[in-house]
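HUMAN:
Could you generate one sequence with tokenized structure?
ASSISTANT:
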Amino acid sequence: MQTISINLPDALGNFVQQQSAEQGIDEYFERILRDQQREQARDQLEAELIKGIESGFGEPITPEYWAKKRENCNNIWTAVGSRRKVLYLIIPLLWRGGILRSKMTGWWFLMKG
């Protein structure tokens, strides 16, 4: 654990002491910082959701969509020769393109065949 020392004006120091009287100053600041972390994570998630909404409609996920994906995978698999090589080739490309991050469960479903 790290120890951090801060200087506060008297009025603010008194306020912190009053607020932390029941639970202790360490727990008080820990709670404040954790709340701030949650708020920041919520803001980041909201920004990503808005970005996704503004990006427009994606391709509908249908049985034909999966059949096409499976066929592409099978073609690469045949060309390369092993499942391990396919994973090493495809996953970085999909990750960089954002496909794997947004459709993680679909990727594993695809590889099960």
Q: What stands out?
A: The two ends are 48 Å apart (CA to CA).
